[in-house]
Amino acid sequence: MDASALRVGQGFRLADIDPSATPGFDPDELNGHGAKKRGAAALEENVPRLSDLQERLFASSTGGATDGVLLIVQAMDTAGKGGIMRHVVGAVDPQGVLITAFKKPTEEELAHDFLWRVERRVPGPGVIGVFDRSHYEDVLIGRVRSLAGPDEIERRYGAIVDFERGLVERGIRVVKVMLHIGKDEQKERLAERLGRADKHWKYNPGDVDERLLWDAYQDAYQLAIERTSTGEAPWHVVPANRKWYARLAVQQLLIDALEGIDPQWPAADFDVEHEKARLAAS
Amino acid sequence: MDASALRVGQGFRLADIDPSATPGFDPDELNGHGAKKRGAAALEENVPRLSDLQERLFASSTGGATDGVLLIVQAMDTAGKGGIMRHVVGAVDPQGVLITAFKKPTEEELAHDFLWRVERRVPGPGVIGVFDRSHYEDVLIGRVRSLAGPDEIERRYGAIVDFERGLVERGIRVVKVMLHIGKDEQKERLAERLGRADKHWKYNPGDVDERLLWDAYQDAYQLAIERTSTGEAPWHVVPANRKWYARLAVQQLLIDALEGIDPQWPAADFDVEHEKARLAAS
User: Fold this and answer.
1) Nearest residue on chain A to B101, alpha-carbon basis
2) What NCBIfam families does the record tag this protein with (chains A, B) (predicted)?
3) Does ipTM surpass 0.90 in this model?
């Protein structure tokens, strides 16, 4: 699929994006199955390519390359972050991946600048880092719940742009994704969690508290995306009412980032023939 | 398969274990394919069971359960640790897994007791922690290379037993695995790495240095296993000349540990009907 349509550009308006759309992916591309099945099959088909790129990225770092990838995933509750972690990120070698789920900040974290805890989880060379929520919470819930004043929120937009530029300059591709679900779809997904005893653990009464602030969150996303979508670290808004589509789109964004790096197997830093002789004699 | 045959018991002798064996797994169980294919198919078949248990473990921790699992994998170079991480551990939700690859200790780590860096990576409740190498290096290479004196090595055996007992008392099942390959098989695998440009990055001249000390390492493993295999945290020696077998065996050991916990979905800590009404009104 072509994921370039998901990239945020000039005049971006979140409210204009249909959460049920499937841009860049033609549901009629394959015949004989439902879109869900076709999407899952396409996801599976791309795994070898993604795995190969990930292994090359990891290998290249052993030869001194400094490239890495940071995938940032933001979304309203139930939009499918967990499914992305499991089905997209989970399909690559876990040894080359560093997932961080950012929760409500601890006392220690609150005693530092909002970027402190995030900087500590930036992936090293060769690694695909994944943020499940991120420093963007500090300008999303931070704004909606007035956890910081307007001046501080303003400062944070700028600090985020600077921080991410620094990452890119160090060789880390920053892939920013908002999974965009509709309000009705969220209601259905929360209802499903409430309806099944084996899903209750995924439900939190706070989810409805946040849901009641839906419009304020959409505004906060609009603003955050506007203020922090840059040439070097653009946002991508991924319609997420169809889980198969969102997974496929994020997988493609990862593949695109890795292809942009085009990581190469490093040359041996030892004498291959000499080592063959040593091994043969051992 | 029945993995109980892999458990180290009284009178254990590493030298008596055939690295090409497949104990507990009858290669004739399934017909029509080679053992390798059958093993891969069996591995795939067990994934849903392992995934379900992992999700239950994670869920149970949100309800206050303190259970966790720590899989410790030790082996000579090329024995297949990476394949275990990728194909066994990599098949479960990465959000519930914490893999740590222990390398040569840093200056900071060396300034602390040998268990310091390990304690910091013990999995929390609900998590499957995986150690790719571990504190056992400190009684393996530590002994073979005389990185510590005999008295200190002696002290470490006891410290390890105490440390692991503490983990078990906290609710962490400790699954200790030695992947056991033969010396000839290692030679073939190292030769393969030397023979392919895209595998050179996996080769290190130090691998042959360690290989030259093969017998000393086998002795060190024998001793370490003898001294630290306890009722609460026994060792398992997994013949590893056949990769498909080793993966299947470690997967089974993980499943057995999780079945021993028998994690349950936690009860809702909120009023389900009340939340349904709030959601409906939102």
Assistant:
1) A95
2) PPK2_rel_1 (TIGR03709)
3) yes
